[in-house]
Write a structure and sequence with these properties.
3 domains, alpha/beta, 434 Repressor (Amino-terminal Domain), Rossmann fold, disordered N terminus, transcription
Length: about 350
Amino acid sequence: MDRDQTDKDDEASAHERPTLKTLAFMTGLGVTTVSRALKDAPEIGAETRRRVQLVARQIGYRPNRAGVRLRTGKTNVISLVLNTEREIMSFVSDIIYGVSEVIADTPYHLIVTPYSRSQDPLDPIRYLVETGSADGVIISRTQPNDPRARYMLERGIPFATHGRTDMGLIHPYHDFDNYAFAAEAVRHLAGIGRRRLALLTPPVGLTYHGHTVNGFADALSEVGASEVPFNTVSIDHSIEQIRMRTAQLMRRDDRPDGFVSSAAAATLAVVAGIEDAGLKLGRDVDVVSKQSSDLLHLFRRELLVVNENFRLAGSELARSVLGLIGGAAPGSLQSMSLPGEVVAYRG
């Protein structure tokens, strides 16, 4: 064999994926013993299991998913289904991190299944179910009567929703208490003397739109403040649309002196519109906004913020799906995050 061929063979060998046979050779054990050790089989001694698993990590061994599927009917895949045109990047990265953190020490892998505005949100779910591409599914942008949740329930597919439904059906979810967020935001604004308040809502049709609107309205009645309607845009509109509509609103004689915003990116547009109208944040108007990272105060220190932890949401959703796959009762796999206090950095 010439040297060039030897180099090619060595290069191919270096890129070969480690297998059970590789582990067996390196540990001096049989393939069957190695396989059982990786699965924590009780008949294999603890020291043997530890040694095999340590070597597996060191050489980057991963089970062949096609082989696993043939043997067990499972894919070892959790799919996170996202609308790529609607989800904010900080949400995506944080929720992926949270899911990945939980499944890191399990056989499961995360795939992101995207869909766009032009698609029916049910399309990617049908694809995953009909092709058997995932053992569990996580969805967001949950609707009160969500056809995706109903479809998966009817077919016995393990799933969890980021947000609740209102279908009278029990399924795993993790949610942020948007009713409590909106109510606390109104109370805070009223406490610093703001009496005419506007709400930039989540999009109509999603469950947390109703939660947010109800919390806002109930707290207005509680503190005796009034609403300045701002229903021509939602946080799903473009930054420029929100900015323009905010500026128009703030040029009116009956303009609001306080805003509640349901998303950080939309808040940036609201502030731009306020300033386009020649008004000053913190003097003429105050804004309470949700945020998922400590960035808004770098933009304007006068902003009032409430933190929503999407990394925690990802972790809880992953635990819920894994729990359902493992046979836990759906009702035991539901969780809720409560908003913290409104944080001000006026300096």
